Amino acid sequence: MVQVKKEAVRQRIIETADRLFHQKGFIATTIGQIAKDAQMAGSAIYVYFPSKLDIALAIFEPRIIAEMDVTEKASMRIKDKRARLAYILKRLWHDIPLQNNNYFNNLIQALVISSNDENYKPTILLEIKTRIGAMIGTCLSPERAAAFDIDAFTQLAVMAFDGFVINGHLNPAEVGSDRIIDLTCSMILGGDG
């Protein structure tokens, strides 16, 4: 018999998993616990999500996109290019990683332990890199933009984000510190900033 998917059930799974990930972490939360708390059979979860990673992505992808939206909109109101760049980096390397008790640490956990069998597609990663690159581009003069490898920097920025998320619960004072932001702005802007 074919299972009919209901949006309300899918949403209940997402909300339950979100709460459990926040309480226990991604790794410690099991599909069985999600099913029990969502008041459904464990096998029913798989009708909606092929894996726990898929549940995590359903939770975190919209949130990271929303954070990028906020960052883009707010950064465009900052006229000074160095201040705009500092704001963008502070959001990526400090504000977002430390949000809600290191909330995005669960996303990093999910990605780190995922297997090739789960067929993770880095669509969101590519979108984030593109958006970060575009935001950084608005901070550069045409001459500096021609000389600076924005693509390479966006790869570095995403890797740094991951590191700051992981380090957030270990040493929050060093997550995206003003020293790091200032140094990075100077490196990116070169003689322009």
UniProtKB/TrEMBL annotation:
Signal peptide: none
Keyword DNA-binding attributed: yes
Keywords (A to Z) from UniProt: DNA-binding, Transcription, Transcription regulation
Record bears the keyword Nucleotide-binding: no
Pfam short name (any one): TetR_N
Coiled-coil segments: none
GO molecular function, one term: transcription cis-regulatory region binding
HTH tetR-type domain span: 7-67
PROSITE patterns per UniProt: HTH_TETR_2
Name of the molecule in the record: Transcriptional regulator, TetR family
Organism name: Rhizorhabdus histidinilytica
